[in-house]
Amino acid sequence: MRKVEVCLSPELLHLYDVDDKIVVIVDIFRATSTMIAALASGVTGIVPVMDLETCKSYKEKGYIIAGERDGQKAPGFEMGNSPIAYLEGDFLGKKIAMTTTNGTVAIEKTKNAAHSILIGAFVNISATTRFIQNQKKDVLILCAGWKGKFNLEDSLYSGALVSKLHPHFRTDCDSAIALKSLFESNSHRLQLFIGQASHAKRLQNHGIEKDIDFCLEMDKYDFTALLQGNEISIHKA
Ligand SMILES: O=C(O)[C@H](CS(=O)(=O)O)OP(=O)(O)O
User: What is the ipTM of this complex?
Assistant: First the structure.
């Protein structure tokens, strides 16, 4: 039987075997939710980048540059890390280079070893579940966390995904078992529960409650986002 594990932070990644696995990168607030919003708005490719300078250099290649640090749009960038911003503009056929505090770093850390990398978010969780169910691979869910620390929102997403995969996947990983249980006992009040998260409070201080609401919406979209080469795009089966 296939196996699912959860790594609670990129700082713990060295303890896991990534080779030949499907890795689901999750950064609910907000990088991976924002990537799904951008693709849903017609963006054809997103290049995740570790640092601001490399990201800026994509401008001359015709990319829209999106840069965020500590919850704010970085100086000199066209976009920050708001999913809502992608729902408002004209992004059809555009490509984006993106760097964020936690999310794009987590992608960079796994991209050379994994069999495939999926972008995980509540807004497309059922599509991601279906994609995984159709593959014959073990799964590692990697929480981007916050600056190396555990966070509630990525963990709850991990629990939700483990719960959805459960009948077909074995979980002998304690974090997966714990988060499945945490999700199942709080699924009826998810918004309220995640509202306590330190990250939600940080973002509320920036006045971006609409972003938080968006990131916690379940199954708004029915597509999977996959890293292919160095670019994230919608996966067509
Ligand atoms: O913009 C965000 O939501 C965060 C910034 S921070 O963690 O609040 O500083 O970046 P992300 O990479 O999406 O976690």
Answer: 0.92
